[in-house]
């Protein structure tokens, strides 16, 4: 039984921090370093339903990681002595 790369990726996603998962993450990171033209060219070789699922999965991760950015910004502001209330008052102006 032969698995497609996409099917293999979905299986590896379910594993914990396996070497395969780490390598897949590195592969995605490298994909992100490619030119938009190159990414689009590669994406044209992927069936549309698979592309839609990939976009959905990436959006889920983006949504779940928004909190990381908020926490980082909050720590940076706190280090500079800026409170959340001061920031809110500034943004309301």
What does this molecule look like?
The chain is mostly helical and 93 residues long. The protein has 2 domains: 1-44, no CATH class; 46-92, no CATH class. 77% of the residues lie in helices and 0% in strands. The chain contains 5 helices and no strands. It has helices spanning 5-13, 19-32, 36-43, 48-79, 84-92. The longest helix has 32 residues, at 48-79. It is elongated.
Work out the radius of gyration: 19 Å
Count, helices: 5
What is the arithmetic mean of pLDDT?
A: 85
- In total, the number of domains comes to 2
* Low-pLDDT sequence parts: none
Helix content: over 70%
Sheet of most strands: none
- Portion in strands: under 5%
Number of strands: 0
Order of helices and strands: HHHHH
**Rough outline:** elongated
Which class of secondary structure composition applies to the elements? Answer: mainly alpha
- N- to C-terminal separation? 62 Å
Protein name: DNA-binding protein H-NS-like N-terminal domain-containing protein
Domain DNA-binding protein H-NS-like N-terminal: 27-88
Organism: Vibrio diazotrophicus
Sequence-ordered SSE layout with sheet pairings:
Elements: H1 5-13, H2 19-32, H3 36-43, H4 48-79, H5 84-92
InterPro entries: H-NS-like_N
Protein name: DNA-binding protein H-NS-like N-terminal domain-containing protein
Pfam family, one: Histone_HNS_N
Describe this protein with a few key phrases.
93 residues, mainly alpha, 2 domains, 5 helices, DNA-binding protein H-NS-like N-terminal domain-containing protein, H-NS-like_N
